[in-house]
Design the sequence.
DNA sequence: TCCGATACGGCTAAATTTAGCCCTACTTGA
DNA sequence: TCAAGTAGGGCTAAATTTAGCCGTATCGGA
């Protein structure tokens, strides 16, 4: 059972200097945090996750789930049942992310009133 | 003295639901953390910052500095001297980011040995 | 006067990430 | 037998971010 999986071949080097860059490499991706959080909260199956995060395209959720598996944050269990069933769970390593996410999320919530207006007008790329 | 500044017009909505998304909106950008950290450490002038982060192109550093100003994280002071001088400083709001950055950076450093190999091979976009 | 340093913007192309459509395969229930 | 739900990949195009080059202007020193 050969495993074929086309990956995007990076051309620019990944930044690994500072610890926050490491964190961001893991956490970056439009829905990864949501996925991690949902899985942490017990939403384990792909279908449930899709329904939980309806704004995300199914396609992207799937690829980001795959990335999280590759990064050792979650594990995927395939139950070889009659109606195929899949479940994701945080690894022990993935669990270590939770308190960090909590801290950053708290910062965001604390300053939401300041941030929301700024972020809606401002864009990431100022030219 | 009209201020003209071409901004990139976002077409997709910004995600603001969760606090971590708010945090990420601010922190995202290849060199923003480095900039924030350097400024926090007292490296205030554009030229110094460029020398401190030599891997970054001058162009991108400048635009990201501008973004941080627009986001209220830093302030830019222009000294109308004989040889023009500019300095950046963290705002009080920007200071609130520091402990959060410390936490995430610590997480990264703590797990560097696990992360480095994973992140170098794996790419963000699994296709 | 020419070189280097200060500080900055315009512009194009490359790299990367997301959106969104289509298709496969299997199972259950109507 | 058809519809719906399970899970997931291929593919293209759009959106977004970075890289990198060129040009402006001022000042100080050799």
Sequence:
């Amino acid at each position: 059972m050969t495993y074929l999986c086309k990956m995007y071949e990076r051309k620019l080097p990944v930044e690994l200097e500072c610890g926050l860059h490491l964190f961001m490499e893991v956490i970056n991706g439009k829905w990864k945090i949501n996925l991690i959080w949902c899985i942490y909260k017990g939403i384990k199956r792909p279908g449930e996750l899709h329904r939980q995060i309806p704004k995300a395209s199914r396609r992207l959720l799937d690829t980001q789930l795959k990335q999280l598996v590759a990064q050792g944050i979650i594990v995927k269990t395939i139950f070889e049942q009659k109606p195929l069933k899949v479940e994701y769970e945080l690894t022990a390593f993935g669990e270590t992310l939770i308190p960090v996410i909590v801290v950053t999320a708290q910062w965001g919530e604390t300053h939401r009133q300041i941030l929301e207006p700024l972020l809606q007008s401002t864009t990431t790329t100022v030219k």
Remarks:
- Residues 74 and 90 of chain A are 4 Å apart (CA to CA).
- Chain A touches chain B through 58 residues (CB under 8 Å).
